[in-house]
Write a structure and sequence with these properties.
The protein has about 100 residues and is mostly helical. The chain has a domain of about 40 residues. About 40% of the residues lie in helices and about 5% in strands. It contains 3 helices and 2 strands. The protein has a two-stranded antiparallel sheet with strand order 1-2. A hairpin with a 2-residue loop joins β1 and β2. α1 crosses α2. The protein starts with a helix and ends in a 7-residue tail after the last strand. The mean pLDDT is about 90.
Length: about 100
């Protein structure tokens, strides 16, 4: 696959990037180099290799999943801008 100057202009327009006319030829060369590198990556044999989400395996820190009743409604609404009887007060948004 090869990128010509017309394609560079079209991609720049779609990306809403202003590209000066003197830079179009250089950008076409850079995009062709990137696409050539991707073609090289496609030649690598990855048969039997598991996909990775990260280079280093990281285990997420998880809290214990304990069900509680909260038992502190006053503390929950303490920092609310408006509360009444341990409930949040919000402005009416539906008429």
């Amino acid at each position: 696959m090869s990128v010509d100057q017309a394609t560079v202009r079209r991609v720049a327009k779609l990306a809403r990037i202003k590209v000066k006319e003197e830079n179009v030829e250089r950008l076409a060369g850079e995009l062709n180099s990137i696409l050539h590198w991707i073609e090289q990556l496609n030649e690598v044999d990855v048969e039997g290799i598991e996909p990775m989400t990260a280079v280093v395996t990281v285990k997420m820190k998880k809290r214990k999943d304990i069900v509680t009743d909260g038992n502190n409604p006053h503390d929950v609404v303490e920092n609310a801008p408006a509360a009444e009887d341990d409930y949040f007060l919000v402005p009416k948004v539906i008429e």
